[in-house]
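User: Assemble these into one structure.

Assistant: Restating your components, then the assembled model:
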Amino acid sequence: MKLSGREQRLAAIVGGIGFLFLNFLLINQFSKQNTGLRAQLSQQRLEWSGMQQLLQLQPLWSGRDAALTAKQPTLTNENAAGVELYDMIRQLAQKDAVTIQNPVLNQGVEKTQWYRSIPVTIDTSSTWPQLISFLYTLQKPDQFIVCEDANIQVDPTDQTKMVGHFKIARWYSP
Amino acid sequence: MDIGATLTPTRKRTRLVTIMPAADGWRVDGIAEGQSAHVARTMEEAAASVPEGAAVSLSLPVSAVLLERMRLPSTDRIELGSMVVLQLEKTLPYSGDELTSGFDIIQEEGNESDLLAIAVSNEQLDGLCEPLRSRSKLPEQVAIFAIQLAARFPSEELLALIFREVDSTILAVAQRGKLVAAHACPTTNRAEFLAELPRLLLAAELEGTPVDFTKVLVERELASWMDGLREQLGDVPIERVSIDTPLDPGPVNLVPDGWTQFQRRQDQTARIRDWLALAGMIYLFLLLAAAAYIIWLRHEVGVVNAEVAQATPAVDTISAQTARWNALAPAVDPNRYTVELLQQINVSIPSEDLHVTMFEETKPTEFLIEGEAPTGTVFLQYMDNLKKNPALQAFHFTAGEPQMLPNDHAQFRIIASL
């Protein structure tokens, strides 16, 4: 069947519109895919870049982890641990002429994913240099001793002295 | 009426194929390099042998055209063309647009031209060339074989040419390479032609064509006719001649205008088809390129995904180690010790008149400073020093508006958190 000129024109218009519509769908689909994939790729490359930076520090973190495992003390006796800590605090305080008052021991063991805490609560009275010296000798990296709570104020009755309230704990391996 | 025109070869032709009348059909030459002419029985067969893309030059037999000698009062070719058309319209039973015509000037004398007008019916030409048209191989040149042949002998004063064309025998008369008359005898039989020859010569004489030939040339294959011809033509030298050699196109081209337009349309259609094919290829290429790009993107995403997945266990381990270290930092990092914090708070004091009255550390990640500054400016400077202190860079400092005391001192409260 041969189409007339008018029919051919109409067929060309319909075909053209169909072709344009098909192209619109294709371009739209391509655009969506392109945008989505590029965003995904960009995000993953960023993540990969961050991971690579972290992986470069792997020796450092492995070393630190190994040091923590090697040096963190292990709790053998919960009841004795508080007393031992208090004795050590008392001896150090005596050395720096820091007066200790109202000690509270055996407050129980606080457990976290990373440590088990044995705290001792004390009040102190001393001059500023004495307090600084006491705290300096108290906290050493190998000791795993932490001031979980500290409140230091000028003594209202004697402006030359400082009064402090401390919750000092040793963090044992979990 | 169409004056013969040359088809414009808008598309490049690779080879020229000539189709000329032969004794028993059509001689097709130029089909392939180095190949001799091929004789086709019919035009259909001749058209089929023309290779694709070849330009076709067709030579018409005398029987297909009308030849009329005219003497016209002009030497201008354009004027002569118009005069020829007018004369032919008067004498022929065709309307102007049914004919294609041309002319060859035999000689010019003063303001007058002696010429041979040639006309061909478009319908007859279309019918003859239909096999070529249906194959889109319409001739770019339509010549008259007798005129082309006569042009081979420009030095002969008055020449008679006897040769066969498509089941006819032709007696053509040429003066100095110009055809002046041609008569077709509808037979290729020797005896019949010789019997008809006196009548043909008489007819030529009556038309005003001289017949006292200086030479007679006979087609090479008609050697056996020479004795009979000699008996009728007397002492005129008679020689044989080969007529299947390539010939020049000649001065007349009877390509009808309709063919030119048809060819132009064909070429235009072919060009559009070429462009559409190119556009289609580009479109397809773009589609494939877009698809390949998406596939490549997916592949890249897959590659990075695999790398991330491969590195994830190691990263998780490092993250756990980092979290453990950070959790235990108050116990192992000297920068986080209470004494170190007190030291840094102390060294950041900008003036001796600023006093820290209270330090409170409620949890390992946060501490509080209270104090009195002599002026608000000193307090701001203290805040600035704390923020700039490298050892306290990990902490974020915030403070409310300082409270002004009766002695104009500013009482402040600063919170530092990780």
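Strands of chain A lie at 99-104, 110-111, 116-127, 145-154, 161-172.
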